[in-house]
């Protein structure tokens, strides 16, 4: 099973405002999964508005709308998100006061990529392609 690494291509922002402990794991996991799918789709079809729609104000401020399309195209050249893929929630990871939701993205060719995001008051505060 190949693992793709995408060092340097991470479009991410992690606001360091306090993230409360996760609310009910099932509702937070469902929200994180929905947000992850939306953001991956927005990368596949460069759509800045869709990418930042579920995001906190701090995250939105850190994603440059003028550079988004070029960054999305670079990511898509390495991780073909415009092709069919599936997203599977794997686990959570607590890092300090933050809870990361980790996903396995299986691409059309069988390659896999790990992704994560964290939520702050129901909004995406961090997003990473690992």
Question: Summed up, what is this model?
Answer:
The chain has 130 residues and is an alpha+beta fold. Helix content is 35%, strand content 28%.
Q: What is the strand and helix layout of this fold?
A:
Layout: H1 25-44, H2 48-52, H3 57-62, H4 65-78, E1 85-95, E2 98-107, E3 112-120, E4 123-129
Antiparallel strand pairs: 1-2, 2-3, 3-4
The portion of residues assigned to helices is 25-40%
The coarse silhouette is globular
Summed over residues and divided by their number, the pLDDT gives a mean of 83
Taking the alpha carbons of the first and last residues, their distance comes to 16 Å
Low-confidence stretches: 1-24
Given helix and strand content, the structural type is alpha+beta
Largest sheet: 4 strands, antiparallel
Radius of gyration from the alpha-carbon trace, in angstroms: 14 Å
* Spatial arrangement of strands, main beta sheet: 1-2-3-4
> Order of helices and strands, N to C?
HHHHEEEE
Q: Total number of helical segments?
A: 4
Total beta-strand segments: 4
Oligomer type: single chain
**Could you tell me the strand content as a percent range?**
25-35%
General description of the model:
This protein is α+β, with helices and mostly antiparallel strands and 130 residues long. Helix content is 35%, strand content 28%. It is built from four helices and four strands. It has a four-stranded antiparallel beta sheet. A hairpin with a 4-residue loop joins strand 2 and strand 3. The protein is globular. It starts with 24 loop residues before the first helix and ends with a strand.
């Amino acid at each position: 099973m190949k693992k793709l690494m995408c060092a340097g291509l991470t479009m991410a922002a992690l606001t360091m405002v306090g993230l409360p402990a996760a609310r009910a794991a099932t509702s937070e996991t469902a929200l994180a999964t929905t947000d992850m799918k939306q953001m991956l789709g927005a990368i596949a079809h460069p759509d800045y508005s869709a990418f930042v729609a579920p995001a906190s104000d701090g995250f939105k401020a850190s994603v440059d709308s003028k550079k988004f399309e070029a960054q999305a195209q670079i990511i898509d050249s390495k991780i073909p998100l415009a092709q069919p893929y599936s997203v599977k929630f794997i686990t959570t990871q607590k890092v300090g006061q933050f809870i990361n939701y980790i996903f396995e993205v299986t691409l059309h060719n069988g390659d896999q990529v790990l992704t994560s995001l964290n939520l702050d008051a129901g909004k995406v505060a961090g997003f990473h392609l690992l």
